[in-house]
């Protein structure tokens, strides 16, 4: 049996009145149990593994959990950058400059002659581009003291920055037919989205996102680049307050129209019972209840954002942490709602999309 598909955020919501709700006592008891467990898990991981970050759970307009752990300054934007990119594409679609099904080689000339050429915008936004795995691309050298800024380490081997990994993937065949294999753990297609936005809009992605997304959302504490107070955050920083401002701007139609927002949140590819992927967002359903959001786990970052599209509830977690701690936090949150699946096994069967 799959894990619970939605969190208590939705289970306790009165947004859906068509299906008979569970008994009020049962809802309250279940929510109280989850809140107690989450508080316990967060305290444990923060104490044992040095988790630094913030988490807030909003229900009926009030915070049920609102905690900070360690140094909460310069929290990484992490997976929030993907959501900004998805909204940026939605804005270009509304401007008539881009289509969801446009082929990449017709919109981004730099991919001509690469394995990226046949991909569509939708393939990128649904994490179903099927790029060659890093393990099949010869990259990396033994770490030394002069390792360049932007390089990470996996098993003592220096891994190139994201842009170099992406360019290397373009020289290798795709590992799956576009639209058939979902890999939410791969950040490389989202760098392609940023390059696409830059090409189509005529201005750098960071500037476009700042002017068309951060500004209208009043996200004054978010940056997509390193800043003097946060020089090491090359992929951006954000705040808990800004992430909730982003949620409210989406709900109120301040960023894209309700029609475009609903297109972002529409299920596109099935991941499992009650679990689908949309354009940049994951969708969880249980009966007539629904949650949309995103989550990502990097080597040193944790990011979760989930909301009830028909109500006011939401959850945001931001942090710096060891990878095993990030997995532990995701497990704790998994008691609240089903999380996006991890990267697929290279030998596993592909997931086939429904006919649209």
Written account of the structure:
34% of the residues lie in helices and 18% in strands. It is an alpha+beta fold and 356 residues long. The chain has a single domain (8-13, 23-131, 174-334), classed as DD-peptidase/beta-lactamase superfamily (Beta-lactamase). Helix 3 packs parallel to helix 7 and helix 3 crosses helix 8 (205-217). It starts with 7 loop residues before the first helix and ends in a 22-residue tail after the last helix. The model is unreliable at 1-20, 139-157 and 337-356 (pLDDT under 50).
Descriptive labels:
34% helix; 8-stranded antiparallel β-sheet; disordered N terminus; globular; Beta-lactamase; 3-stranded antiparallel β-sheet
List the helices and strands and how they pair.
Elements: H1 8-11, H2 24-49, E1 52-59, E2 62-69, E3 75-76, H3 80-94, H4 104-107, H5 121-125, E4 141-142, E5 152-154, E6 157-159, H6 162-169, H7 188-201, H8 205-217, E7 237-238, H9 240-251, H10 258-265, E8 269-272, E9 275-277, E10 282-286, E11 289-297, E12 301-307, E13 314-320, H11 323-334
Briefly summarize what is shown:
By secondary structure, the chain is an alpha+beta fold.
Total number of helices: 11
Uncertain regions spanning at least 5 consecutive residues: 1-20, 139-157, 337-356
Quick one: how many beta strands? 13
Q: What is the H/E string?
A: HHEEEHHHEEEHHHEHHEEEEEEH
The CATH C-level class name? Alpha Beta
């Amino acid at each position: 049996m799959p894990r619970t598909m939605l969190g208590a955020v939705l289970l306790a919501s009165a947004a859906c009145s068509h299906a008979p709700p569970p008994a009020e006592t049962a809802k309250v008891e279940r929510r109280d149990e989850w809140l107690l467990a989450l508080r316990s898990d967060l305290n444990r991981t923060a104490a044992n593994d040095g988790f630094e970050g913030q988490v807030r759970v909003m229900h009926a307009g009030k915070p049920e959990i609102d905690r900070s752990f360690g140094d909460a300054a310069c929290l990484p934007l992490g997976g929030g950058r993907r959501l900004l990119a998805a909204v940026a594409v939605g804005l270009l679609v509304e401007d008539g400059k881009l289509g969801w099904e446009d082929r990449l080689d017709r919109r981004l000339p730099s991919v001509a002659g690469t394995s990226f050429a046949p991909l569509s915008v939708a393939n990128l936004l649904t994490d179903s581009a099927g790029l060659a795995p890093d393990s099949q691309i010869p990259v990396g050298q033994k770490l030394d003291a002069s390792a360049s800024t932007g390089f990470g380490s996996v098993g003592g081997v220096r891994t190139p920055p994201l842009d170099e990994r992406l360019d290397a993937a373009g020289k290798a065949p795709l590992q799956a037919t576009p639209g058939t294999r979902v890999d939410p753990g791969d950040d490389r297609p989202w760098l392609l989205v940023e390059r696409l936005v830059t090409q189509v809009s005529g201005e750098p992605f960071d500037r476009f996102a700042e002017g068309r997304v951060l500004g209208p959302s009043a996200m004054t504490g978010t940056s997509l680049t390193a800043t003097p107070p946060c020089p090491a955050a090359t992929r951006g920083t954000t705040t808990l307050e800004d992430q909730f401002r982003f949620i409210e701007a989406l709900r109120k139609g301040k960023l894209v129209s309700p029609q475009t927002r609903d297109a972002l949140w529409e299920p596109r590819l099935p991941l499992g019972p009650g679990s689908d992927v949309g354009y940049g967002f994951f969708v969880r359903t249980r009966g007539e209840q629904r949650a949309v959001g995103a989550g990502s786990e990097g080597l040193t970052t944790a990011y979760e954002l989930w909301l009830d599209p028909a109500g006011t509830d939401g959850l945001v977690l931001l942090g710096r942490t060891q990878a095993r701690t990030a997995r532990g936090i995701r497990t704790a949150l998994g008691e609240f709602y089903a999380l996006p699946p991890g990267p697929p096994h290279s030998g596993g069967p592909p997931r086939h999309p429904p006919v649209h």
